[in-house]
Design brief:
The protein has 289 residues and is an all-alpha fold. Helices cover 53% and strands 1% of the residues. It has 13 helices and 2 strands. A two-stranded antiparallel sheet has the order 1-2.
């Protein structure tokens, strides 16, 4: 079944528009994304968690890798996803990966992952966290499903000082990572870039930019790849320019072999850094179109 999904996607020419750089990425950014994708494609998949595997499929598709080239990753995800996708956010990651290769998330490995998302929905909320909420909204849009208006209302009500925190409570400490992802979800749900909720979030996020141009989770002094990539994608989704220093910072974390370090002082998990960074460097946002 997985082989048929991948083959069918290849036959209909399912692509991610990788022939030209999106406005959110320069030629240098796109070259960095390609180097990172080459490194990622060479990493063994046996040591990847289901979440990392799903993210890697989306990242590689963002650079135009064809579904047939990702067949091994898709097959392994089909085997490991059932035990992983126990929350709406985790199920949403699987859906985003399956849709990226043109598959049907309702029948992926004999499991309906859309149902796993919707079964965790109540009163405007998917699951318990910002990531559950935003990823679920993105996965619904990737699948051609509408986002419940109440889900957007819930995000408006949960906005803090400008951004959003992990638990989606106004009293939470706002986080760059959560805010960037939520901006992607709002854009995918049809919220206009001029909307007050969006403009407040963008303004707050830009005030958290470090002197290096990068971003840290809560605006700390040690900017990292994942937070910077999240901010980049949130700005892009909101149709705001990505500062040149932000682009330069993320590229500066790239090593000679193509991987990215988590920060300038620590290697961290290169797979986690690369999975997020590729999409930003390629000038793409979720869900892939």
């Amino acid at each position: 079944m997985i082989a048929r999904v991948v083959a069918a996607a290849a036959l209909v020419g399912f692509t991610t528009g990788a022939a030209a750089a999106a406005p959110c990425a320069s030629t240098r950014d796109v070259r960095a994304a390609e180097r990172a994708a080459t490194w990622l494609s060479r990493q063994p998949i046996s040591g990847l968690s289901a979440g990392q595997l799903a993210d890697s499929i989306v990242a590689l598709r963002a650079t135009g890798r064809r579904p047939a080239a990702l067949r091994g990753r898709v097959r392994r995800l089909a085997r490991t996803a059932p035990g992983y996708a126990r929350t709406p956010g985790a199920a949403a990651k699987v859906v985003l990966a399956v849709r990226a290769v043109g598959g049907d998330p309702r029948r992926f490995g004999r499991t309906d992952y859309l149902r796993r998302i919707t079964s965790g929905y109540a009163s405007g909320r998917f699951g318990a966290s910002a990531y559950d909420q935003a990823l679920s909204m993105l996965a619904l849009r990737a699948s051609g499903r509408p986002v419940p208006p109440a889900a957007v209302v819930a995000l408006r009500r949960a906005q803090g000082q400008g951004g959003w925190g992990f638990e989606l409570r106004p009293a939470d400490t706002d986080q760059v990572d959560a805010t960037g992802l939520i901006l992607e979800a709002l854009a995918a749900s049809g919220v206009r870039p001029s909307d007050t909720t969006v403009t407040r979030a963008v303004r707050w996020m830009l005030t958290r930019r470090e002197r290096t141009g990068g971003f840290a989770v809560q605006g700390g002094r040690l900017a990292d790849a994942n937070s910077t990539a999240s901010a980049w994608r949130g700005l892009c989704a909101s149709r705001r320019p990505v500062p040149a220093t932000t682009r330069a910072f993320l590229r500066s974390l790239q090593q000679r072999d193509g991987r990215l370090h988590a920060t300038r002082t620590s290697g961290g998990s290169s797979v986690l850094a690369v999975n997020d960074a590729i999409i930003a460097l390629r000038g793409r946002t979720l869900p892939l179109r």
